[in-house]
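Title: Prediction job returns without error message
Component: structure pipeline
Severity: low
Priority: P3
Assignee: unassigned

Description:
Job completed but the reporter wants confirmation the result is attached to the right record. Sequence as submitted:
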Amino acid sequence: MERARILILTASIGSGHMRAAEAIRAAFAAHPSAHEMQVDVVDFMAREVSLIHYLMKRTYLTMLRFVPNLYDVFFRFAGKKTGGGIVRGAFAQVMVSTMGRIVRTYEPDLIVATHPFPEGAAALWRTRHGDSYALAALLTDYALHAIWLVRGVNQYFVATETMAAEMAARGFDPHTVHASGIPIARADYSLSQRAAQEQVGLDGELPTVLLMGGGLGIGGMERTLAALETLERRLAILVVAGRNCVLEAHAQRVAERSRHEIRVFAYTDKIPILMRAADLLITKPGGLTLSEAFAAGLPLLLHDPIPGPETENAVYATRHGAAVWLHPGECMASAVKEILAHRIPEMRRAARICAREHAAGDVAEILTELLTRKRGHAYGTAKNP
């Protein structure tokens, strides 16, 4: 029989949605029935997919950079029941023609959306044209938002049981909502801290602090580096600049004159190793970053959240004891000193309690079973040798 066609639709708005998509693709590739699947990933906001989508993305990123409070207003409006429907419907109307072209190209049996824009457009196209593909939505933050809540989605995957219960309270079938956690890349989270430090060139003698700002390398890391220079205690500092070439060059200049031991990385696939090497992660609270840190048992110091989803992520991590949230006006250096001196063991335990490192595999298994039922044959019954 022809292989099942799985299309993962994501959005290059930051890196979290893309990383979730890649984690799901890898989980399908590792499934015993991988040979019966054709899995493709499409960036719904890429220029080659749609110039309009790309310009919308650029507008969004510009708004975050220069007028974040305006984005907060938009996010809060879209988070209301009525506002969410208006915003979701408007974006779906603009994007549905592109969705139709993608559906005709890939002819999917299943669409998995890691961003609400392709989710809404896929739901609208299916309603209008009667296509038979199944539709799954994978939420990438730690709080529910109305823009994701589309009737007719076959399976939802959310970060926590609380989110699943909230969806049930809003009338969604509990059997279609799974508190899977947020999918992250497979990694050896049993790797010892010492072994991880050796892999990144550290001798393990100094407390190790990891700085991240998402794939775009944003979040005031220049200020963070300056604050760490005021600490009397010498540190090993790992800086992930992402695709921010200006930040990378700045960090290299700081490293040349710093009394701390600083290693600078551009966009890298070594995040799990860097997290296992660190004692503390200083970062903005993206959903994927939090999920990876939880899996690594890594305490977090959070700052500069994007208004809206990242603020709610910060609330979640802080309430569960895995993070300290540094608010405007509070002293970065004092917070780092306090955490390293007194709070690392308790915060590591709290992070591990929040961890869902098997989320990607769980999502792939549930969706494989969905395809089995949809296609009506013994799909997914292959056994491990």
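Comment from assignee: result matches the submitted record. The CA atoms of residues 139 and 158 lie 5 Å apart.
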